């Protein structure tokens, strides 16, 4: 309980003979703290902003020491965050503890082999250029077969970062790649001639 002393002056400029003491009760409330992220599981790093209605915020992560809060906190791994505030009357908020579980999604490791073909014709000569690309994130292998079209004769096969084999009995060309690096490109050029 506090007291307030009052000195009274009348219209003639006279003051009261003694102080008037009046008991005064001052009521204050404790600070309240909050964060922009609640306890939960997140798939990537989060930036946590702490706020209070008054006073200064102090925080700690895990079992560390409390520090004065000044800017948002980046939480990039599973962590326990504790914080509170103290106002100018030394009144302290309750300690708030939040647990953030960070489960970062990892990119699956796989190869992705794709084929594309460009056909050009010059007179009786027909050329097919196959482009083989690995758009995955690990090395990859793949193969395909090509039957020599009717009316054409296989003349030549050239490769870059690829392999091929040819069975004349079935007129079947097999080609592909082995352990093609991620984002690498291989080429197979097949030349035919019309009969």
UniProtKB/TrEMBL annotation:
GH29D-like beta-sandwich domain sequence ranges: 38-97
InterPro entries on file: GH29D-like_dom (IPR059177)
Pfam families xref list: CHB_HEX_C_1
Entry superkingdom: Archaea
Protein name in the entry: GH29D-like beta-sandwich domain-containing protein
Source organism: Methanobrevibacter curvatus
Highest classification ranks of the organism: Archaea, Methanobacteriati, Methanobacteriota, Methanomada group, Methanobacteria
